[in-house]
## 1
Amino acid sequence: MLTLGILGSGSGSNMQAILDAITTGALDAKIAIVLSDHPDALILKRAANHGIPYAVMDCEGHKSKFPDSAQARTAEILKSAGVDLVCLAGFMRLVKAPLLDAFPLRILNIHPSLLPAFPGVAAWEQAVAAKAKETGVTVHVVDSGMDTGPLILQEKLEILPDETADALHKRLQVIEHRIYPMAITRYANSLKP
Ligand code: GRF
């Protein structure tokens, strides 16, 4: 069984989807720990409600940087929790060497676009502003870039005429919640000897 650690900054609906897939048996895993850089993030409340251990990362007052020391502490916490795969779920800081080296090719991310198109924040707004005809969702392995790294799974979504960014984001999230657990299973199977 896979032992997951989840990092998120916001509402944690993807964490919830992963948990739901575990509950139904669709994903053979357990969530050992949930970590957030925001003490008030809903993702932590969701973890607490489900009796999942959680902790707040101390990013030393930095608004968007993920200092090396905080990454090293995060790696230690994940290791002590026995985590073998780390899932970023709406985590808004760039992961670099201290954490990447502790979990080589063992950190996944979900992003609401068909990468490499529209990396970075609010990808659904970027897609609408660019008048794109389609976008989608990508699950990928994390490297030191911004939403780069080997692709695991993508699903396309046609953008409707006059669709607002908010409406598009809602439809993208439905896809996210369905494909993240699938992508975790697919990736974990690919790692088996
Ligand atoms: C999702 O749209 C995800 O793709 C992006 O951030 C959002 C997080 O949502 N990286 P949630 O916290 O999982 O609800």
## 2
Amino acid sequence: MAWRQESPRRGARSTLALAAMQRNFLANGSGLCPYVGQNLHGPEQMMSANSPLRSVLPPDIRARKGSEPLVVLTAYTTPMARLVDPHCDVALVGDSLGMVLHGLPSTLGVTMEMMILHGQAVVRGCSKAMVVIDMPFGSYEESPAQAYRNAARLMAETGAPAVKLEGGAHMADTIAFLTRRGVPVMAHIGLTPQAVNTLGGYKVVGREDEAERVMQDALAVQAAGAFAVVLEKVPMGLAGRITAALDIPTIGIGAGAACDGQVLVIDDMLGLFTDFRPKFVKRYAELGKAADAAIAAYAAEVRTRAFPAEEHAFPDVLPVKGPK
Ligand code: KIV
């Protein structure tokens, strides 16, 4: 039975009141959702809120520490999620979507609404991989209560079972607040792109004097209850020491092979995002180039009337079928 059906919120309401709420919600497609006890807006959100309990959950990911490496890729749309799902343990709806899909100069302009819309699309495309959704800049830093409100909204409106947020020791209270209240948190330390302006660029974090602080960040997010931690652009020796020191899995991006898993931005590894290419990205395909060639061929054929051919058009009169 799905957890939503066992929820105490629901149990507290009378059967008749619930039936009325359900009728109202299903008829209008919005309003106070009888399944999650929150105001949702439209059938899209209702579907997400009712998605069945996922097969892979944060404790399963945590339990993978020290065994087969965790495979993580970002995904932002249903078609991409369908491609990622059979091969990956986690599909991350990263706020990198602001840069790779929406053409923003950094992740700072990403909103809750963008994360929810893309989160819903990815949840629809995944049946095996666990979906984790990034908390966007400004949605969690102010206070643990603000973080809880927005994390609960991300989970309720998309059906994803976990969120990711950036920050180490200074976010430990918030991570503890969330995890004690049913919000599984994947932490993200080292280079935290939402802090690009205070860090002074997308630089490696954790060399020399900085190493001990990054180690303390890792220990702090683990103690706060994070089920896994992303290490971004952390020198490989330090990433190895952090991985050995922690009981939770480390997921590296530009952090070397010693981590318990790896994550890449899908548009980077498929060669779809070509504005710049970080050193840690390996291109497994050149889909951008393939798409460019296909679009150029289409444009040439339209201009020469080679497309559409007769087989792509419809006859005015259907051919008469003869006797068999
Ligand atoms: O936003 C993102 O895609 C990320 C990954 C690169 C870890 O945070």
## 3
Amino acid sequence: MGSRIGIGLLGFGTIGTGVVKILTHKEGLLKERVGVPLDLVKIADIDLNRPRNVRVSPDILTTQALEVIHHPQVDIVVELIGGIEPAKGFILEALRAGKPVVTANKALLAQDGRDILKTLEETGQDLGFEASVAGGIPILKAMREGLVANGFNRIYGIINGTANYVLTMMEVEGISFQDALADAQAKGYAEADPTLDISGMDAAHKASILATMAFGRYFCVNEVYVEGLEEVNLRDIRYAREFGYRVKLLALIKGGPKVEIRVHPTMIPLEHSLAKVDGVFNAVYIEGDAVGPTMFYGQGAGEMPTASAVIADVVDIARDLLKGGTRRVPPFSYESLERDVRLKPMEDIVTRYYLRFMAQDKPGVLSRISGILAKGQISIESVIQKGRREEGTVPVVMMTHEAREMDVRKALAEIDRLDIIGGKTILIRVEDGKGW
Ligand code: HSE
């Protein structure tokens, strides 16, 4: 080492192709910035014949990942296979072989990150995972370095490009959910299994990584409360606008004696910058206790934005290696992830709620609904009855004041059993913009 840094790539798919393009097309720029060339030594993929719109010498291609990991000229291993296995085994192998790793693998870190963290501790090796959250936005580096002086009060993120693209296309372009999703898949934004995008799981993976970085204790994705887009429909998106809100699939992370980590459709005020984030764009609003509010915006998915984040990690590690060290900055910002941080159960959160009941249009209906809400200490801020009878019921839409989740769930269970109610009540949580 010294005159060059060797890169070994595992996975030559969409993001891998972007990484190869940057390493080849921007070779000169990167050399000027790093001081030595970043040399693409070897690439492994199970399918070497798939057409890719970048040219590489056939000599550097292999189907054997171990050949890449143990190649004597590979200094940094880049894992872009995705999923749990075999990616996990390859990352552990590389770390144990004394090689730092760069990965975009949010599912692995969020679901099964403990073995990786343990091996990082044991080996003292480095791990870069900027590309795992919010694609091209350097949010992890910002939290780890630029915002290191801050405790984190609130982190609100639109961190799934596909879900945001689908919501935007439905609302603004009037196209169907299925067409919008197919379009996102064709553009390479969606996960291999797009239900991860729609179910909120992909955003939950990213939220667990952000929370680990914010609070210094490992949060597994199983600890994140998740709801996806399954129950969001155009009708609620339109009513939200009438109340002055927009519906976004939001990741919410809140500090406090007990922290909150959740992902669900959320109404945010139209005038807030987050409400204006459209299409595949992501944004993360972070409130630090020293810096105050900050907001980061950019493309959260796709070949080149994600490859940009991968290369940023490669360069950070290359610079450390060239100075004869490793891991100048701990991967998750804290020297140890053993902090005693408690999670607030979802039932205990307090927020405002949008509720849409499908109720019969006759006298006394509203008072029965509001009676049950009042019994549960849920106070109504405003109510609108929309239109006239549709198949025997009409939508009755309410905004509540702040209420406790457990009380709202209990009240809705009771309301949904009433004979005047013609279907499951729709609930969307509201972040009202107070203080943010
Ligand atoms: N499927 C993800 C998204 C890709 O749509 O945001 C980036 O993680």
